[in-house]
Amino acid sequence: MSGSLARRLGTTDAVVIGLGSMIGAGVFSAFAPAAAAAGSGLLIGLLLAAGVAYCNAIASAQLAAQYPTSGGTYVYGRERLGEWWGFLAGWGFVVGKTASCAAMAITFGAYVVPGSEWGRRAAALAAVVLLTGANLRGISRTARLARVLVAASLAALAIVVAAIGLGGHASSSHIGSVFARGGVYGVLQAAGLLFFAFAGYARIATLGEEVRDPARTIPRAIPLALGITVVLYLVVGVAALAAAGPAVLAASHAPITAAVRAAGAAWSVPVVRVGAAVASLGSLLALIAGIGRTTLAMARNDDLPRGLAVIEETRQVPVRAELAVAAVVALLVVTTDLRGAIGFSSFGVLLYYAVANASAFTQDAAHRRWPRALNVIGLVGCVTLVATLPAASVAVGVAVLLAGVVLRALLRRGSAGTSRGTRRTVRAPVQSPSSRRRSPGR
Predict the structure, then answer these.
(1) Where are the domains of the chain?
(2) Cα–Cα distance measured from residue 332 to residue 98, given in angstroms and rounded to the nearest whole number
């Protein structure tokens, strides 16, 4: 059954879903590739990423208040700039955040099963299956589970910071020069990679059709969730660098574990593993929900196969869209690695927000809450960070983007052909049998 989604979420629910999307991504996975790109300059990269994310957040909030429906920037781009721009945003979001799902599932497996590679991948697949099932039970249950996961993640991170501070080995000398590795380019690349960690507020905008009083709730929830996350990242980032230094973080697939070991607080490693696992599950839970709803919106407009637009009647969830997302994530889990997934995710999501900023720039005064200058800064920031991502991530991103353009063109051509065939079928029987008998020469 195709229809509308139920409005069941309040401000607190929306903030928690946004936090669940962001906290797992950044703290437990993105610091390692960022340290490899910029060393201690990742702190500057973190602030740059946060600044771009803020511009994107207010653009998303402003647009979501005017267009309170599922789909996020896919819908905004279509309404403000045209169908193709909306498609580029939606496709960038779907493929980028599908890669994020794979990254979160792989992170979960790495912390839960630190030994065998296939054991880690099996654990990651199990997480995808279980959380897809949770999402299919309805958005209210998703929000309640997200509250539990976020609370556990915050508790674990508080213990980590305390353990580093009390371990006795942390020192500001470990941080060193913020431009010791990679220079300005490295800092920008670190910002692009760390942006992956700030993209969770998009989950709030894509749930616009399920939020109560969206014109009030969404503009409040998005900046609040982002602000909490920025403060948390800065605290944990400074603590991790002071404990281990950038070289140790860059060499580790589990940078927070490496940081507490270097700080002389190995007793807290089990807490880190549990916290990372829980945070990854929270992020994965919210990501699957958001991608499913963007897929739903695109399918409604024939930008993806129409069969994905089905909403299950009892629980009001886009069941086919979420199952399709889960299948692709499962494939990525067994074929890709964490760092590649992060870079590719950043490419897709930055493209998505570039369209969001351009769309917000066109809004009139009646719907504008923030100055247009912030939309310009956000757009330039997104394009700049895309250009400085690792070359392999950019190449794969461009290839997948072009594949999406071809897919849409084929779907639109097929849809147009079906429409013409339907019109011919309707016209053909109009002539009555008596008319045909009067016109034997035809």
Answers:
(1) 11-412
(2) 9
- 189 versus 6: the higher-pLDDT residue is 189
Tokens, residue 259: 């940081």
Contacting residues for 396 by C-beta, under 8 A, at least 6 apart: 344, 347
Selection from 42, 27, 32, 28 nearest residue 251 by Cα: 32
Name residue 211's beta-bridge partners: 9
Structure tokens at 138: 């309805």
pLDDT for 107 beyond 90: no
Percent pLDDT > 90 in the chain is 30
**Given a cut of 50, is residue 430 above it in pLDDT?**
no
Please report which helix (H) or strand (E) contains residue 55, including its range.
Answer: helix 42-66
- In whole angstroms, give the CA distance from residue 67 to residue 59: 12
Write the class of the CATH domain 11-412: mainly alpha
pLDDT of 300? 81
Confidence band, pLDDT 50/70/90 cuts, at residue 30: confident
Amino acid at 5: L
pLDDT of residue 429: 44
Helix boundaries (H) for 253-364 = 255-262, 269-300, 319-333, 338-361
CA atoms within 13 A on the CB side of 78: 18
pTM listed for this prediction:
0.79
The dihedral built from the CA positions of residue 198, 201, 203 and 206, taken in this order, carries a sign that is negative
CA distance 31 to 104: 14
Q: How far is 400 from 341, CA to CA, in rounded Å?
A: 13
pLDDT digits (tens, 9 = 90+) for 382-422: 999 999 998 888 998 999 999 999 988 888 787 666 555 54
Using alpha carbons only, give the angle 167, 274, 95 rounded to the nearest 5 degrees. 120
Averaged pLDDT of the chain: 82
Say yes or no to pLDDT of 292 above 70: yes
274: which residues sit within 8 A by CB, 6+ positions away? 152, 156
CA distance 170 to 155: 21
Cβ-based neighbour number of residue 115 at 10 Å:
7
Kindly state the tokens that stand for 408: 């849409």
Phi, psi values for residue 56, rounded to 5° = -65, -35
Separation CA 334–CA 123 (nearest Å): 11
pLDDT of 96 higher than 70: yes
